[in-house]
């Protein structure tokens, strides 16, 4: 989720809640694969009728996934965020939106909207089944039929499974994002929430495989190859996604402790009318390693390291003006010592190549110089 995300490649079907609706070509491959699996499940012979029924069920599953993703987009839009894309992919889908200034509430509500939508769809479908009005032939297919009851029953079960699976407390599931938001809200540390939720995702990946192997063994039978393959496939999706989130959180959490104040070099401010000798004397008294020079209007005009001033011959320092050692500073490059996180990174991008450092100002008084090279090193 970025300010200007790259466009996802695929077929654009329109827009919803301001975002593009994209279907990736790989989705068609998954539809065919699911149709084959649905039609041959339980060892049934592949037939035209069976494949058609399987394709209908696969399409209904992806419609449920699409509604799941639309609910994410609708919630993000309702919370005042710009929706970029709603993407249907080989393994399901994802929704991207503007995440600048994201809060635990917005993160949690947007994530929870998906499973809640599937749960509502499942509840409606089960309510319709209870009416008894749908046990009629819906489609005639090559000498067989699909009843409305079976279609709605499938929708109810599929959406219930989607709701439960996505509610599991681990990244990349929506439940993992909800867990992340809860930890974030309690600890005030977003990345701690991501790390805990990522470990939850890893645990679920392992648990899926153990269940696929252990459940049959507990019943005294040998695990089926099909079940083991599906469990392994799910684990191969969950584990890398959770691991990527874990690595990202461990890296990005460093940004939270890096501030302009934490990397700055102590500085003392002197007026431009001072001599090098005066500036060095002031720096010695305050223990500063940088000298910030202010102009006639009191604004920062530039700075120089104490070592540069000391390089001026001692007998000449009293008569040497600061303009001879000054490194000019562009207007506006003063920052607060508390500048950190994404704002620090954004400021670094803005000023890189325009100045060698920021003047750190606290309570209207320059207190240090944060060299951009030091900031970059601290963030790595």
Provide an overview of this structure.
The chain is α+β, with helices and mostly antiparallel strands. The chain folds into three domains: about 1-165, no CATH class; about 185-255; about 260-380, CBS-domain (Roll). It is about 55% helix and about 20% strand. It is built from twelve helices and 13 strands. The strands form three sheets. The protein has a seven-stranded mixed β-sheet. Helix 9 links the parallel strand 7 (about 265-270) and strand 8. Helix 5 packs across helix 6 (about 190-220) and helix 6 (about 190-220) packs antiparallel against helix 7 (about 225-255). The chain is elongated, with a radius of gyration of 31 Å. The two termini are about 20 Å apart. Mean pLDDT is about 85; it is low at about 140-145.
Round the Cα radius of gyration to an integer and report it: 31 Å
Q: Which spans of ≥5 residues are poorly predicted at pLDDT below 50?
A: 139-144
Give the helices and strands as they follow along the chain: EEHHEEHEEHHHHHEHEEHEEHEEH
Number of helices: 12
Overall pLDDT, averaged? 86
Please provide the count of β strands. Answer: 13
Count of the separate structural domains: 3
Features:
alpha+beta; 3 domains; 7-stranded mixed sheet; 4-stranded mixed sheet; 13 strands; elongated
Topology:
Elements: E1 11-16, E2 19-23, H1 26-40, H2 48-78, E3 83-89, E4 92-97, H3 104-131, E5 137-141, E6 144-147, H4 148-166, H5 174-187, H6 190-218, H7 225-257, H8 260-263, E7 265-271, H9 276-286, E8 290-294, E9 300-305, H10 306-310, E10 327-328, E11 334-335, H11 341-351, E12 357-362, E13 365-371, H12 372-379
Parallel strand pairs: 2-3, 7-8, 11-12
Antiparallel strand pairs: 1-2, 3-4, 5-6, 7-13, 8-9, 9-10, 12-13
Helix pairs in contact: 1-2, 2-3, 2-4, 3-4, 3-5, 5-6, 6-7, 7-11
